[in-house]
Amino acid sequence: MKTIMCMGDSITKGPEGGYRRPLAEKLTAAGIACEFVGAQEACGRHEGYPGFAIDHLMHGNVSENYGTSRELSVTLSEYQPDILLLMLGTNNMYSAHPAVAFQSLKQLMDRAHSILPELELYVASILPVAPGLKPWGSTVPIDVTTRIPEFNGRIAGYVTARQDQGAPIHFVDVYRTVASTAELGPDGVHPQTPVFSKIADAWYAAITAS
Predict the structure, then answer these.
(1) What is the mean pLDDT of the chain?
(2) Ordered domains of the chain (ranges, CATH)
(3) Are strands 61-63 and 67-69 parallel, antiparallel or unpaired?
(4) What whole-number percentage of the chain has pLDDT above 90?
(5) Ramachandran assignment for 3, one of left (phi > 0), alpha (psi -120 to 50 degrees), beta (any other)
(6) By C-alpha distance, which of 61, 60, 52, 53 is closest to 76?
(7) Would the pLDDT of 34 be above 90?
(8) Is 5 helix (H, G, I), strand (E, B) or coil?
(9) Which of 98, 107, 137, 177 is the most exposed, having the fewest neighbouring CB atoms within 10 Å of its CB?
(10) What secondary structure does DSSP assign to 74-122, as a single string?
(11) Higher pLDDT, 43 or 119
């Protein structure tokens, strides 16, 4: 039995399980016994917190509407996942430079392996986001269209370097699962159901290939 933790923001939480539901179905159909773990419970357990940025999952954060994340060492030590699916950074792109956001994510990745050295860490690129005013009041800058590819490129490069050192880490390119933001929902951020299914396919391919 493999324990899987899905960590991220609202895209990880998803409506009706987001990518987690089709991923669980695909793993089960392939005869891969798994259990999803985490403090959040919505269509299976997870660590997906709407509106949270990278540091909120690293150091912990309290949200009246979306729950309380704990410091990373507490979360990983309690649940001891075999696999961590990490898709995080979209909320950083609204204000942070990609290099700054990446350093925060690098710290989280390194910390995860210092806590659980054998953890199989799958790190996803983040999806494109359409600029403009969002329903929750944030305004996404026009250069988000370049920020996100730069952020994703830094992740891919770092994962390759760590793999060369023998680390159990993998890059999963979910950015390429959508051709444009037109495939996302009306807010230009959150996926529609077909995109969640494509994200699940990408996770599944990575898990079964390693």
Answers:
(1) 96
(2) 2-209 (3.40.50.1110)
(3) antiparallel
(4) 93
(5) beta
(6) 60
(7) yes
(8) strand
(9) 137
(10) HHHHHH--SEEEEE--GGGGGTS-HHHHHHHHHHHHHHHHHH-TT-EEE
(11) 119
